[in-house]
């Protein structure tokens, strides 16, 4: 049964069948062979999405899309440019900082990449940045939306692995800021070495800086409102997602940049995105149940307990597994499949759940960058040049992958980077 599951799943995957359908076909096929009613698959699919907490998912997606279309990107970009625009490679660094700021509003990797890229890519081309460098910066910088709260990936992980979503949100700040700083230093160094960009020597007066900050102040309050609502105990993560939607609508109405026609498009796009993710979650839940029947989680647990003698060894092996699988499939499926398997094992090693959650999040960020299925890199190529392939981003992409990998190692070996803020608040 185990052999049949693995052969069937990876065969369909390599044939180009979407992962949700690959898992669905394998699950239904194996149940039929075992003489188990397919009603069990339907029941497990329903159970996988029958959760009040999952309401936060479409709501955060909607909130991010509303804020992206409501004029927040431009204001955050102006603020980032005022802060870092004068350094070497200022426009590239501005792009990274803007991704970090927009990630604190959107919560989506792809949304961050497209929202920032649509504004910054044309300007970077004008200043002489190469397409390969632009794609390797704009795309991977989108993973900051995955790490810096609010994060849709953190919502899914929190629900799946039974980790506090609020704690995950708070834990993401330091790793997210650290990765943004590392990418910014790299972008500045390469820009100086390659002669990319124009150094902006115009001075911004204190009055202009104040106006720019004032214009970007309310968008920057989004994570404060979200975390404040959760940690004050006034709202659950689902309820605070509703507040985020309302706050986005109020800001968009105030700025006057979100038309009724665009709002209609945002609602439809958010519904489609949410449906895709929820379908994956539902089918993954039935597939995970099939793996449990085949006792695969027990085999994996036995492997770790046999070969990993310390917490660090366990985390390194998990990271290696996610690195390989991240090259083959997208992040949501990895979370639904592996988080329920790995979390109980992590507890046996007495690993802090928040620390382990952030190790997974950082590995998912690396998976979003790693070809051939790196969503962020694909988005970066698409928005830079529709005819551009991932291979065209080399060697810059390899550099960026190494930087994200270093960030993963830092989180593994320095747990306080993940837990400091959570412990400080509590």
Automatic annotation (TrEMBL):
Subcellular location, principal: membrane
Organism name: Peptoniphilus lacrimalis
The keyword Heme belongs to this UniProt entry's keyword annotation: no
Subcellular location(s) of the protein: Cell inner membrane
Parts of the chain that traverse the membrane: 6-33, 45-68, 88-121, 133-157, 169-191, 240-260, 272-294, 314-342, 354-374, 394-414
Protein name: Neu5Ac permease
Record's bilayer topology term: Multi-pass membrane protein
GO cellular component terms listed in the entry, alphabetical order: plasma membrane
Boundaries of every TRAP C4-dicarboxylate transport system permease DctM subunit domain copy: 6-416
A Gene Ontology molecular function term of the record: transmembrane transporter activity
Transmembrane as UniProt keyword: yes
This protein's UniProt keywords: Cell inner membrane, Cell membrane, Membrane, Transmembrane, Transmembrane helix
